[in-house]
Fold each of these.
Amino acid sequence: MTTDEEEFFESVVDPSTERIGLFGMAHDITFDGRNFIVLHKVSKNVLTEFDQRLSNYLAAVHGVGLPMAAVETRIRDVSSGRSWTPYPMRHLESVPDALALAAELALGPEPQMRVRMGAWMSEDGNLEQERLITTDTVASLEKALTVCRTIGTPDFLEISGDYDRVLVRPAGSKLDVMVMDLARGTVAVPTTTEFAGTAYQGPLWDFDNALRQNAAVANFVAKARHSVAQNKEEAILKFRELAEERIHEFDAALSGRPLVGYRMMGASTLIARLQKGLGSSLLGLSEAAQITALDWAEKVDISDLHQLESHGPGDDPRLPPGPRLVS
C-alpha cells in the first residue's frame, strides 16, 4: 500500500474492522544471552458491509482493494514474561500474502527455520505443531499467489490455504477450485464441464507455459476471468447504489441538525469513504446525492482523520530484538 492508502485504512476503516485469528507461528531466538519467543500472528480482516463494498469498488476500478489480512508480531522475554510489539501491524491483500510475509519475517536472513504453528501467545503446548519453514516455502507460496492473480485480484477470488496448498476460484463461481500443492510443486486445474474432475495436472512453476499450450488450462482461466469481470461490473454498480442509500440515510438522521460533535465525525468518515472511491467530486452518484454529500464535504476536514499514532522508528523486523526494543 502507498502511504496515503495506509493512512486511509488505519484512520478511517481499521477502527470499525474486526479480525479473526487464523494462524500463529512462533520460533525461539537467543540474543545477548537472553531467550526470546517471537510470534507472528496472521489474521483475516472482517470489514463492515459498506467498507467491503468500497474495497470491491476500488479493486474493480483501480486493481487494489482494502487489505483483507494482517500480520502482527510480538516478542516475549522468556525470563521476565514481558512481551511487546516491535513494529506496526502489517496489512496485506490476502491471507496467503500474510502467510508469505510471516514466513519471511520468521526466516530473516536464514535459509530455514523450525517454527511452531498454532502457538499464538498460549502456554498450551498441545496447540503447537512443529514444521520447517524454508526459502522454498516462501517461493512456492508466492508463485501460487502469482497464479491466483493470473485470474484476477484477490477481492474477486475465493483464496484459501496454508503452507502446504492453496485453493482458488472466482468468488461466487460454480467452477471447482484450482488446487496448488506447494509441497509437491504441482497445480491441478478442474474441468469446466458438468463432469467433475481434474482436467490438467502439472508443475506449478510451469503454469505459464501450460496456460499457453494446454486447452483445458486456457478454458478454465478464460471462464474464471469472465466471472471476475462480471463481479467487477456488479461491484461498481453495488457501491454506487449503497453510497446513495448511505447519503440519504445520513441526511435523514441529521434532520437538519448542524454538523457538530459526533455528527461531524460521522460526516467526516462517510465523506472520506465516498471520496476514496468516487473521487473528490463524487462522480457516478445522482445529482441529489452529490449536492447533499458535497455540502457536507465543505464543512468537514478529512485531514483530522489522519492524525495517526506514531509507532516510532522501530527495528528492522528481520533482526533479533536489540537493547533499544527491550528497554
Amino acid sequence: MRKAILIMAALAAASGPAIAQDATATNLSGAATVEWFVAHCDAKAMNGLYFMWATIVVNGAGQAEMDPYRQHIRDQMAQKFGSNTGAACDALAAGFSKPPTAN
C-alpha cells in the first residue's frame, strides 16, 4: 500500500492548491485518487483493499475537506494525461493491482 500511496502523493505534490503534505493530506489525496480510478477505470483492476482503505478515509473526512483533493486529482490527471483516460488508468492500475503492503 505504501508504494501506491507514494504514487498518489506524487500526483498530489505537483503544483496545485495549497495542500499540506502530511500523513493526513497524503491519505486524503490517496483516497481521492482511488475515487478517480473507480469512477474512470475498470475497478476490477484494483485490489479491493485499496477501495476499503479509501472508503474509511473518505468516511472519516467531510465533503469540504475532500473536495479540494478531488479537484486537485482531476486537475493532475488532466494535466498529465489530457483526455487519454486509458493511459491514466493503465498507469494507476499497475500500482493498484498489487496487494498493499505495510511498508
Amino acid sequence: MKRDSQRQKVYDAERFVTTRRQFGSLDEVKQFISTVVGSRWWKTKYPFARREFKFIVGPDWWRASMGWMGTLVLPKSKWNDFVVLHELTHVAMYKHRLGRNSPAHGRVFCNHLLQIIRRFAGDQSWEELKEGFKAKRVKWVVFSHKPPGNPHIRDYLPEVGVGQPTEVCVK
C-alpha cells in the first residue's frame, strides 16, 4: 500500500458537506447499507465488494469510523449517510482491482467516493464534496470514454482505453 499523503485533506474536504442524513438506530444504518450494496449500480460497479458486514458500535468518545474487510466500526456520532458511504467506498476499494495499489485516500478512492456520494447521497452532497476537494487541493481521477488529447498524458498512462483514467484534475 502506498503512503496515504492526502488523508487529512480528504477529511478536511468532507467538512464542506452540510447535507447529511442522520440515522437514529443501527437498524436504520443496516437498512441504508443493504439498499446501497444491494442496488444494481453497486453490484455492477463493484462485483467483488463484500455485501455482508460485521457491525461494531464504537464507543461514544471515539471520533473515528472504519470500514475494512467486511467490518464496519461506527460510533453513534457517525451514524449518517456520508460517513457510511465513505466507509463503504473503502470496502469497495479493498476488493476492487483499482484500489489495491493506491493509497487508502488516494486519487482512485476519491474518484469513487464522488461517484458513490452522487449516486446515494445526491447532487447537493456531491457538489459540496467537490467544492471541498477543490478548496483543500484533493486530487482525484476523472474517468472518460475518450482518450486524452494531450500526448504528455498518454506518456504517463500508456494503457488508456475505455473506462480507464484519462485526466487528472487538481484544482
Amino acid sequence: MARSLIENSPEVSQISDALTAWFDGEIKSSMASRNAILDNFATWHQWLKMPLTNPSNGNYRRPSGHTDRLRVFTDQGFVRRPWDDQVFARQIFCAQMFVSGLFRNECMLLSSNQEEYLKRRGGTNPVGISIAQVVGNRLRQLKDAGKNPAFQLTTKPTITFGDLAERTHFMNNRMPRVLQLLHTYGADEVSREQSPTVTMLRETQKDWISLATDYILYAAQTREGGLADVPFWEPKSISEDPQIYYPFREVEPTAA
C-alpha cells in the first residue's frame, strides 16, 4: 500500500528536496550565464527607479516575456499533450523560474550593496522560505477540500490537467500586478526586512511552489512509475536548451 502524503512523510520530503536542489542549481547556473546581468545590484536598482514599462527595464522586459511564453506553452502544449514529458517538464520549469525570479527581487530589495545581495541570494536556502512547509500545506488543503483524503500516489489524480491549466493562467496573469506593485512601492522599502512588498513577493513564491507541487502530484498519479517518472527540465536558462531529467531517480540536477 502506498504511504499517505502527509506533511512529514517521505514523499513530501522528496518533493521539497527535489525543488530545493533545482533552485540551488538554477542560482548557480544563472550567475555564470548570459543572464548574470540580473544579479547586478546597481543595474537592478536602476531598473527599480524606472517606469515599469520602460523598454530598458529588465524587471519588466524579461518577466513579461516569460508570462507571454507560459500562456502559449499552456494553451498550445500542455492542455493538448499533458502526457508528454517535454511539455510537462516545461510547465514545471516555468513555475520554478518565477519562484527563482521572485526571490532574486526579494534579495535585491533587502540588500544595500552587491556583496550583501550575493550573500542573500547564495545562502543555504535558495528561495528564502520553507519549501517543505509549502508542499505540506498544499497537500493538506487538497485533503480538506476532499479532493484526495488519503493522499496516496496509487489513487486517481487529485486534480485534473484542466485544473492545472486554470491555476497556471491565474498565476501567470497575476505577475504583471506583482511587478507593478514592486515598482510602485519597492523603492521606498529598500533594506526593510519586513515590508508589504517583501510579504507580497514571498506569498507569490509560495503560490508558485504550490502550483509546482500540483504538477508534480498530478504527474506522479498519472505515470506508471509514480514520483520516479515526474520530469523536470535542467535548472538553466531556456535559451541554453535545458534537457529533461528525473529528479526522483537522481541525486541532484546537472546544470552544466
